[in-house]
Automatic annotation (TrEMBL):
PANTHER family: ADENYLATE CYCLASE (PTHR38760:SF1). It comes from Succinivibrio dextrinosolvens DSM 3072. Residues 11-198 form the Adenylate cyclase class-I N-terminal domain. GO terms for biological process: cAMP biosynthetic process. One of its GO terms (molecular function) is adenylate cyclase activity. Pfam families: Adenyl_cycl_N, Adenylate_cycl. This is Adenylate cyclase, class 1.
Length: 823
C-alpha cells in the first residue's frame, strides 16, 4: 500500500465514520448528546473534581483524545486545564460506539453501547478496576437520563480465544465471531486510535490478514501509536459459527424480539459455509469502493436484507413474515418521539415503501402498528411464532454441527445449560405457568376480565375460562377464550405472572357453585406479586447446571373449596385440638389446597392436592421430598422467605395458617439433632414424621388405631420415585431425581464407576464397572441426543433437552455436577 492509496482509503473510512457519528447525534436528544460528550472525560481523567474518581490506581487516559468545546468548558468549570501536557502513554486506546446507534433502528430511547478499547498489556487487576469504574459511569449516565453501557475490551480479546460464561456478554466456550462481526459492521469511532481492520482490503484479508496487518504497521509514513487491531473475521472455522449461533440462541430465549434477526443471521451464515461472506466484510469492501454512502451501508438494513434473502431462498414464508414484522416494528419504534427532520421523513418513506413491497394492507399496518390493538391473544400468537423460529434455528445449528463433525464446538457443559434454558422457557407440561416474554408484559394488561366456570353438565371444556371483556357485553359471545385452567389458583397465577391482571383491572366472576369472587382473586394476585416478584428473578448458569429444585412455594388454602363453610365451628371446638383436627368430631378445616412454586430454573408451576386430610398429608410429604439433611437447617431459618402459607377462609384464616405452618416446621425439625420424631393429627388420624435409620430422610407414617407398627401406613409423595426404583438408589439420587429430565449419576466403585440412569419418568437403570473416560461418554451421549433431535425435526415436538450429569461423593450423600470445561 503506497501513501496515495492509504490516504484515499483512510479518507473514505474517516468520512464514513463522521457520517455515522453525525447521524447518531442528530437522532439523540440534547440530554443524551451531552452525556455522550461526558463519557470520554470521565474515562480520560481520574480527578477529584470529575465523577468516577478513584484512589485505588484505576487506569485512565485515552490516546489521541482532544476535548471539543463542550468538554473544554466542562473541564474549566472544574478547575482543570484542558491544554495541560499529557503522558506519552495511555492505557485506553479508544472509545467506539456499536449496535443500533446511527442505524435506522436507532430511536431516542435506544441505549448506547460503547466499547472501551484497552491495551493488551494492561494488567488483569487494573482491567477489573477500570471495569468497576465503567459500571459507575453507566449508573451515573442512567441517572442523567441516558442508557449507556460500557464494555472494557482488550485489543487481543478476539485473538486469545479467552471466554467467559454463557450468561454474560461473552460467548461461553464459543468463539466471538458474531460479536466482532457485529462490531465491525455497526461501530463508529468516538475518540482515540483508529482500527487497522478497516484499512485492509477484502481481498488482502481473505488471502493473508496477519501478513497484511504486519506490512501495514511497517509503512514509513504511518504513526503506529495511532492504530490498534482486533483481528480478522475471515476464514472462521465451523466451530465458531456453531458456538456463536448457540450463544445467540441462549441470549435470545429471554429477549426474542431483539434477537430473532441476529439468530437468523447466524443461521444464514452457517448455511453458506464454507463460502460465507460476513456482512462486516461486505460492508468494508463497499465503503472502500463507494463514492457515496446510503441505505445499503446501514448496519440494521443490511442485516435484514441478508436474513430476508436467506429465508426466501429456503422458502420459509412463516419466518420471513415474522422477520418483516419485527423489522417494521423496530423502525416504527425508532420513529416514535422523533422531531420533524429529514431523517424522520426518510424513515417514514422507508416504512411506506417496505409495506407496499410486501403487499401489506392499510388495515394490517394499522393493526400491528397500534399498540392499543395488541392484546393477550395476539401476543401469545407472536410468542408462539418466535419460539418456533428459535427452535428452527436451534435445529439448523444442530444439523450444521453434525454435518461438519463439530458437536463439541461448545463444551457439553454449555450445551446442557443451553438445552435446559430452552426447556425451562418453552417446554409445556401439566401445571406449568407459561410466561409471556417480559418485553411484551407491558401490553398484556387488560382493562376488564370475565372469569367463567362452566357447570359440570355443560359441553364446554372443564375448568376456568378467561375472557378479556365485560360479562354483560355482547362481545362475550364472540370473544375467544384466552386461557383455560383446571383450577382457579392456576388461573390467577397465570393472569398475575403475565401481568394480564393488575390492580386497575375490573374482574367479573361467573362461577357454577363457586366460592371464588373478585375480592379473593385480587387478594391472591397481590400475594403472588409480593411473594414471588418483590425482587427480580434471575436464573444463573450455575443454576442450570444443578438439578431443578424449588426456590419458593406459596401454599394456598381454602381458595376454591372453603371447609370453614362446611362445618359449624364453635369456640369450644377450637379449644380442643387445632384446626387440622378440632373438636370432638376431629374436623379438618383445610379444604382445597394448591401450591404455586418457583424453581431454580425460573419455572413457575401450580399443583393442586386433594381436599381435606388426604391433601394435607400429601402436601407435607411433598415438602419433605423437597428437603434433605443438608438443606433442612436453611429451610428452618429461611422458612418465611421460602414458604408462604396463605389462607383464604371465610373464618379462622389466620389460625389455620398458623397451625399448618407449625406442623410443617415441626416435621422439618426432625432433621435436627434434637428431634427424631414429630407426632401430629389430621382429622381422625394420627401421623408420625420419623427419621430413617440411616439419617438420610424423613417418612410420614399413619399410625394404626391399635398402635401396631406392622399396620402403620407410610405416606409417599406423588412427586417422588416409585418405591421399586427408590430402593435401588442412594437417597441422595432419589432426592435429586427430576421428572421430565434425563439424569446420569456417577458413583465410585472399587473397580471403575457405577452409573445410575434416571429417565424422564424417574425410572432407574444401573450400569456397573465403567472404566472409560467419563468426558468421552458424556459427549457420546450428547451426540446421540443431538442426532435424535435432528431425526425428530419433522415432528411437532423437539427433544431438545440434553441430560444432566452428576457425581456422588464417597459418602453417597453429597452430589455435585459433572463438568468437562473445568477439568
Amino acid at each position: 500500500m503506497d501513501k496515495a492509496q492509504f490516504e484515499r482509503r483512510f479518507s473514505k473510512v474517516s468520512s464514513f465514520n463522521r457520517g455515522r457519528f453525525a447521524i447518531a447525534r442528530q437522532i439523540m436528544t440534547k440530554n443524551v448528546n451531552e452525556v455522550l460528550d461526558l463519557v470520554p472525560i470521565l474515562i480520560n481523567y481520574n480527578h477529584p473534581a470529575i465523577p468516577g474518581y478513584r484512589e485505588n490506581g484505576v487506569p485512565y487516559g485515552i490516546d489521541m483524545f482532544t476535548p471539543n468545546d463542550f468538554q473544554r468548558s466542562y473541564l474549566r468549570q472544574r478547575g482543570i486545564d484542558p491544554d495541560a501536557p499529557s503522558s506519552s502513554f495511555w492505557p485506553v486506546y479508544a472509545l467506539y460506539a456499536m449496535g443500533s446507534t446511527s442505524s435506522i433502528a436507532q430511536g431516542q430511547k435506544s441505549d448506547l453501547d460503547i466499547w472501551v478499547c484497552v491495551s493488551k498489556d494492561l494488567p488483569h487487576f487494573e482491567m477489573n478496576l477500570l471495569a468497576e469504574k465503567c459500571k459507575f459511569i453507566s449508573s451515573f449516565c442512567k441517572a442523567l437520563g441516558a442508557d449507556v453501557n460500557l464494555f472494557v475490551t482488550a485489543e487481543n480479546r478476539f485473538i486469545s480465544g479467552e471466554h467467559g460464561t454463557m450468561d454474560t456478554e461473552d460467548c461461553g466456550s464459543a468463539q466471538s465471531l458474531f460479536l466482532l462481526d457485529e462490531f465491525y459492521r455497526s461501530s463508529f469511532r468516538i475518540c482515540g486510535r483508529y482500527i487497522v481492520w478497516y484499512m485492509i482490503s477484502l481481498e488482502d484479508e481473505l488471502r493473508d490478514y496477519a501478513g497484511e496487518a504486519e506490512k501495514f504497521y511497517e509503512l514509513d509514513f504511518l504513526i503506529k501509536d495511532q492504530w490498534f487491531d482486533f483481528g480478522s473475521v475471515a476464514k472462521c472455522s465451523p466451530v465458531e459459527y456453531f458456538g456463536s449461533g448457540m450463544w445467540l440462541v441462549y441470549k435470545g430465549i429471554d429477549h426474542p424480539f431483539k434477537a430473532v434477526l441476529k439468530i437468523l443471521l447466524m443461521e444464514a451464515y452457517a448455511s453458506e459455509y464454507t463460502n460465507t461472506m460476513l456482512l462486516s466484510m461486505e460492508l468494508k469492501s463497499s465503503i472502500i469502493s463507494s463514492r457515496s454512502f446510503g441505505l445499503g451501508h446501514d448496519s440494521y438494513y443490511i442485516l435484514y436484507k441478508k436474513v430476508s434473502k436467506y429465508l426466501s431462498k429456503i422458502n420459509d414464508i412463516e419466518r420471513l413474515n415474522l422477520v418483516r414484522r419485527c423489522f417494521y416494528l423496530k423502525l416504527l419504534e425508532a420513529v416514535d418521539g422523533q422531531q420533524k427532520s429529514t431523517f424522520l421523513t426518510r424513515r417514514k418513506t422507508l416504512l411506506r415503501r417496505v409495506a407496499a413491497l410486501w403487499n401489506w394492507s392499510r388495515n394490517y399496518i394499522d393493526d400491528i402498528s397500534s399498540k392499543k390493538n395488541w392484546n393477550v391473544s395476539s401476543l401469545r400468537l407472536i410468542q408462539t411464532q418466535l419460539q418456533e423460529s428459535l427452535l428452527k434455528s436451534y435445529k439448523a445449528l444442530l444439523r450444521f454441527s453434525v454435518t461438519h463433525g463439530i458437536e463439541y464446538a461448545i463444551t457439553s457443559d454449555d450445551a446442557g445449560v443451553l438445552s435446559r434454558k430452552i426447556y425451562a422457557s418453552i417446554d409445556k407440561y401439566p401445571g406449568k405457568i407459561m410466561q409471556i416474554y417480559k418485553e411484551a408484559s407491558s401490553f398484556m394488561e387488560e382493562e376488564t376480565l370475565t372469569l367463567v366456570l362452566p357447570s359440570p353438565n355443560t359441553v364446554c371444556r372443564h375448568g376456568w375460562h378467561v375472557y378479556p371483556c365485560d360479562r354483560n357485553s355482547l362481545d362475550l359471545l364472540s370473544t375467544k377464550v384466552v386461557y383455560i385452567a383446571p383450577r382457579a389458583v392456576e388461573m390467577v397465577a397465570w393472569l398475575t405472572v403475565n401481568n394480564v391482571l393488575s390492580n386497575r383491572t375490573k374482574v367479573y366472576v361467573c362461577g357454577s357453585n363457586s366460592t371464588v369472587d373478585f375480592k379473593k382473586i385480587k387478594r391472591l394476585s397481590d400475594d403472588i406479586k409480593r411473594f414471588f416478584f418483590s425482587k427480580t428473578i434471575h436464573v444463573r448458569e450455575d443454576d442450570l447446571r444443578q438439578a431443578r429444585n424449588i426456590v419458593k412455594s406459596m401454599i394456598v388454602i381454602n381458595f376454591e373449596n372453603d371447609f370453614t363453610r362446611k362445618f359449624m365451628i364453635s369456640n369450644s371446638d377450637l379449644e380442643l385440638g387445632d384446626t387440622l383436627s378440632c373438636g370432638r368430631q376431629k374436623m379438618c378445616l383445610v379444604g382445597s389446597i394448591d401450591v404455586i412454586s418457583l424453581n431454580s430454573w425460573g419455572e413457575i408451576t401450580s399443583h393442586s392436592y386433594s381436599d381435606g386430610e388426604l391433601g394435607v398429608v400429601e402436601l407435607l410429604a411433598s415438602i419433605l421430598r423437597g428437603s434433605s439433611i443438608t438443606d433442612s437447617h436453611r429451610d428452618m431459618i429461611d422458612f418465611d422467605n421460602r414458604v408462604k402459607v396463605c389462607s383464604y377462609s371465610s373464618e379462622h384464616g389466620d389460625l389455620i395458617r398458623y397451625d399448618l405452618e407449625s406442623t410443617i416446621k415441626g416435621i422439618l425439625g426432625c432433621f435436627s439433632d434434637y428431634e427424631s420424631t414429630y407426632v401430629f393429627n389430621v382429622s381422625h388420624n394420627t401421623y408420625e414424621a420419623r427419621v430413617s435409620d440411616n439419617k438420610n430422610d424423613v417418612s410420614i407414617i399413619r399410625r394404626s388405631m391399635f398402635r401396631a407398627s406392622d399396620d402403620d401406613v407410610t405416606i409417599l409423595s406423588r412427586f417422588g420415585m416409585r418405591p421399586e426404583y427408590a430402593l435401588q438408589v442412594p437417597a441422595s439420587v432419589e432426592h435429586h431425581a427430576t421428572l421430565g429430565i434425563m439424569q446420569y449419576f456417577f458413583a465410585r466403585e472399587d473397580e471403575g464407576w457405577k452409573i445410575y440412569i434416571v429417565n424422564e419418568r424417574n425410572e432407574v437403570k444401573i450400569f456397573y464397572g465403567f472404566n472409560g473416560s467419563r468426558a468421552s461418554l458424556v459427549n457420546s451421549i450428547n451426540r446421540y441426543y443431538t442426532a435424535l433431535s435432528d431425526a425428530n425435526s419433522t415432528k411437532s415436538t423437539l427433544n431438545f433437552n440434553l441430560p444432566q450429569y452428576f457425581v456422588l461423593g464417597n459418602d453417597q450423600k453429597s452430589i455435585h455436577p459433572f463438568t468437562i470445561s473445568n477439568k
